[in-house]
Amino acid sequence: MKLKTVFICQSCGYKAPKWMGQCPDCSAWNTMGEEVVQEASKTASKSRAFTEFSSEIINLADAKTLNEERVLTGISEMDRLLGGGIVKGQMILLAGAPGIGKSTLMLQAAASLSKTKKVLYISGEESVNQISSRARRLEVDGKNIFLQSETNIENIIAALDQVKPDVLIVDSIQTVYHPAFSSSAGTIGQVRECAAELLRLCKPKGTVLFILGHVTKDGELAGPKVLEHMVDTVLYFDTEKDNVLRLLRPHKNRFGSTSEIGLFEMTSGGLTPVEDASSYFASGARSKPLIGRAYSIVLEGSRPILTEVQALVTPTRYPFPRRVATGMDFNRCQVLLASLEKNAGVNLDNKDVYISLAGGVKIKDPALDLALCAAVISSAKDIPVSNTDVFVSEAGILGPLAKVPLADRRAAEAARLGFKRFFTAPLGKENIKEKDITVLQIENIIDLAGRLTNR
Q1: What confidence score (pLDDT) does residue 49 get?
Q2: Other CB atoms closer than 10 Å to residue 172's CB: what's the count?
Q3: Could you tell me the end-to-end alpha-carbon distance of the chain, in angstroms, rounded to an integer?
Q4: How far apart are CA 53 and CA 200, in angstroms?
């Protein structure tokens, strides 16, 4: 083994023999860091992390189907994101900004898993006393949870061999270092090699591995992007500024869907799953109609969520009218406003338009288009929208409406919440079987404006 100096981009992992101001691969500036790495001989294996995963060559038709036995974490929102629970040998990366609640969530999951599994919790950021203090605050019973405050990967491996846990939690991977490498913890080489060592040990034994990682101010995972390719599941924690709501989104999942979303509320007793998202996002009571407010049912994965769209249209005091959108794509809002002016005769050229989604969440479902148009028309013409109407459809740039998938599931959720009328695009052969709500099919936003003004 020989030592050599290389310069590695801390954003993408690109290697160069000399320093450069800009990375040729990802075009990031001032990210090339000097590291001393070991150069293996030509006869040696390039990576020892995957040497134990080789198998004999077989025909795909003869391969046995793997029966995935899932174990519930005890946290309903996380189990749904993972596809029904964790799988033996699964490697899960939980990434999020510092202080967002990753350690709290993992301690709550460890408490539930420890009822049937042996859990080893390794922390490189907090002492055992700090973790124990949080456990008491969360009322966690830690009889089957083993703690260690450690950053040396060799000592972590020794603890793994000693405890032989069913679940291993490492908090966080940026604090762990390999003594064989001279670079500091958190660098490209250290994070990659430490994660590879844990993968090599946990996969053959069927140990479930949770790795916690921090994200940068730009929202990217701190450390090499290769870490996301090594794991089975990548979960990202996100939140709005000064908002108690936490959103858990899967960016990669080999054992389930990536279109789901998990909602948590931070309380004094830890993270509480938000199971009735519709009630959470619909702010205030729907006791009476309001000008500039319309409701829609969006889908996050398979979950229908009631969303409240608010619009405020006022005379402008500026040379150029203002357009502000919160929670929705700004460019999409601009297109819909232009379509309303052209096709529905809504005069907005001397008006400021402010659009917002209640609850502080960002949603990209095109089913919101019709509710946005209804809210803007209501505010522009001072016409209140009925609090028993819900609007679900995509609006085209020329005015026609397009149906959205799973309209029957959206209608069922609207009926459950007490709505009486369901405005949507022509459904064609699709049929909504929900009997507790009236389905009104409209073809374009001109028809929408006529129904709102001629009620």
Answers
A1: 42
A2: 24
A3: 82
A4: 8
Q: What is the DSSP letter of 177?
A: B
Helix 188-205 to helix 153-163 angle, to the nearest 10 degrees? Answer: 10
Report the alpha-carbon distance of residue 217 to residue 222 in Å, rounded: 9
Domain boundary residue, one of 216, 249, 275: 275
Tally of domains within the chain: 3
Cα distance between residue 121 and residue 131, in whole Å: 10
For 30, which DSSP code?
S
In a domain? residue 216: yes
pLDDT for res 69: 82
Domain final residue pick, 219, 251, 275: 275
Question: Residue ranges of the chain with pLDDT lower than 70?
Answer: 1-3, 36-55, 63-67, 216-226, 240-244, 280-286, 360, 429, 455
pLDDT tens-digit series, residues 11-30:
777 888 888 999 898 888 88
pLDDT at residue 65, rounded to an integer: 58
The pLDDT score that the predictor gives to residue 176 is 92
Task: Please give the distance of CA 434 from its chain centroid, rounded to a whole number.
Answer: 31
Residues 292 and 312 in one domain: yes
Residue 364: DSSP 8-state: -
Q: Say what the pLDDT of residue 41 is.
A: 53
Strand partners, 248: 237, 262
pTM exceeding 0.70: yes
CATH classification of the domain holding 207: 3.40.50.300
Tell me the residue length of the chain: 455
CA angle 7, 8, 10 (to 5 degrees): 135
- Output phi, psi for 343, to 5 deg: -105, -25
CA distance linking residue 75 with residue 264, whole number of Å? 10
The domain of 305 spans 280-453
184 and 266 part of one domain: yes
